[in-house]
DNA sequence: TATATTAGTTCTACAATTTAGAATATAATG
DNA sequence: CATTATATTCTAAATTGTAGAACTAATATA
């Protein structure tokens, strides 16, 4: 198995999938990313990252069977796997631990 | 000026520079990285990242004037700039905010 | 039932970050 | 001054990050 490294953008997208729950499909994720970061992102960037995350085993996905409001293709809904969640937690804990060692930030 | 994005490895290295203070030179940073992550890293990886971080204005550096124990080239000591520190804090705050929105992690 | 409209994914390509390791430089010591 | 130890600098390649065009499918409406 490959190393389970997590890039910056990958980490944020993984977190967004967790936050969005049932609504975790590419378009919505891109929207949410933009509203939370004030930073533009292309839909292609989101899709290819979501694919990579799936290949690594951090996400699963399935086509939504529902009927959209106006029309359009069916959504692909993403879900975090147990491994994905663990990797996310490890990344968080590691950063927290580093911040605690940073002089002047120990109790802030 | 380019966008001030911070990659995953860049962020960790920046934090390590802050933690190491006077001892923040490439070799030591690499050692510290390995001991904190249980993950091997090449010295070249550290050097090129430190350079990039400097070009972005997140780090400054100067040659140490001291004499080492046995021999060897003089160290290049790195220091975080005010911008570097701000970028680091922003990255941290953003992640914290995302975790707070993640159902099941709000108070943990 | 053909066509326009809307919503969404897939594909292709390129830029930036991350990674490794060889080459080189410098200082102390015998 | 040759050898050894300590570091940096350089070169190159793999992985991530990014953009946008092409494509697909469902619905509405004429």
Description of the molecule:
The structure is a homodimer of 108-residue chains. By secondary structure, chain A is mainly alpha-helical. Chain A has a single domain, classed as Arc Repressor Mutant, subunit A. The first copy, chain A, is built from four helices and two strands; from the N terminus they run αααββα. Chain A has a two-stranded antiparallel ribbon with strand order 1-2. In chain A, α2 crosses α3 (43-55). The mean pLDDT of chain A is 88. The A-B interface holds A 5-8, 11-12, 15-16, 18-19, 21, 36-37, 92, 94-95, 97-99, 101-103 and B 5-8, 11-12, 15-16, 18-19, 21, 36-37, 92, 94-95, 97-99, 101-103. Chain A binds a DNA duplex (30 and 30 nucleotides) through α1 and α3.
